[in-house]
Amino acid sequence: MSRRLALVAVILLGLSACAKPCLLDRTGSMTVNAAADANRSSATAIDLAATTEAALADRLAGLDAGTYFATREQLLRDHPATLTVTGWEVAPGQTVGPEPLRFACRTEAVFLFASIRAPGAHRVRLDSLKGLRVDIGREAIEVTR
User: Fold this and answer.
1) Is the pTM of this model over 0.85?
2) Among 21, 46, 99, 117, which has the highest number of CB atoms less than 10 A from its own CB?
C-alpha cells in the first residue's frame, strides 16, 4: 500500500509542477468611448492581441500600432496556436461596450493597439482586464481602470 501511495504522491507532484498559474487576470470588460473628433474624425480600429508565448509577448511589446496592423495577418499565420486577436472598429462619437473579455489562463500578455493617425506607438500592455475604459481622442488613446 505504501508503494501505491508513494506513486500517487509522485504523480501529483509532477502535475502540480506542470501547472502554470494565471499570469494575468484573464477576465474582465472593456468600454470604448470615441470623442466626436476621435482619430482626426476617422474610424479607429482597436485590437486586443493576447499571447500565450513569452517570446511573442516581447515581440508585440516592441511594435507600434502601425507596424502591428500592417503585419497582423502574418503574425496570426505564424502563431495560430499562441496568438488571439479580438478587434473592433469605432466611429467618432461612438461608445462600444462594456464588452466582456476572456482569455486563456496561460495568457502571457495582452496588448491593446489603436489605429490612430497621429505619430506615436498607440500600444498599451494591459496588466488587468477588469473594468477597462478606452478613450479615443483626436490624436491619442487613454486607457484607465
Assistant:
1) no
2) 46
